[in-house]
Amino acid sequence: FTMFPNEALCMDLSVGEIALYLYLLFREDRKTYTCYPSGNQIAKDLNLSRSTVRKYIELLERKGLISTEQTSIYTKKYGKQNGNLKFTILPIKNVADAYFERQIRAQQAKIATEEALRKYDEKHKKNNSK
């Protein structure tokens, strides 16, 4: 059983982003909020291509829901090798607060632009009617 945060439903996530986010929530260690699934394993489990998985990882990172960190492994035969990504699920409250703050700023910018256009139109209507 994996709980999906209600706040995430308000964040304009695509179906693929939701699927990947749920997958990572399911796989995470509840104490450290991290997990290490390989890109191939994610692609296989979600029936997606590797490039699609990479795209959704990038989108979830940009939206602040997860962070990733490259890991390394050491083998006797090959030495240091790239490991799987370390996924960290970020606190949803911080993510939601930042998302809604961006929404508010965008709405305020839209209102300011509309007000400036209205003033411009009023000024030019007066000048044109003379």
Report on the structure:
The protein contains 4 helices and 3 strands, in the order H-E-H-H-E-E-H. It is of the alpha+beta class. Strands 1-3-2 form a 3-stranded antiparallel beta sheet, with helices on one face. The longest helix has about 40 residues, at about 90-130. The radius of gyration is 22 Å and the shape is elongated.
Largest sheet: 3 strands, antiparallel
DSSP strand tally: 3
How are the strands of the largest sheet arranged?
A: 1-3-2
State Rg: 22 Å
Specify the overall morphology.
elongated
Question: Would you tell me the overall average pLDDT?
Answer: 87
Query: Termini distance?
Result: 72 Å
Number of helices: 4
Secondary structure: helix percent: 55-70%
Which residues form runs of ≥5 with pLDDT under 50?
none
* Elements, N to C (H/E): HEHHEEH
Salient structural properties:
3 strands, three-stranded antiparallel beta sheet, 55% helix, alpha+beta, 4 helices, elongated, 130 residues
Record the SSE blueprint.
Layout: H1 15-27, E1 34-35, H2 39-46, H3 50-62, E2 66-75, E3 79-89, H4 92-129
Antiparallel strand pairs: 1-3, 2-3
Helix pairs in contact: 1-3, 2-3
Give a brief outline of the structure.
The chain has helices spanning 15-27, 39-46, 50-62, 92-129; strands at 34-35, 66-75, 79-89. The protein is of the alpha+beta class. A hairpin with a 3-residue loop joins strand 2 (66-75) and strand 3 (79-89).
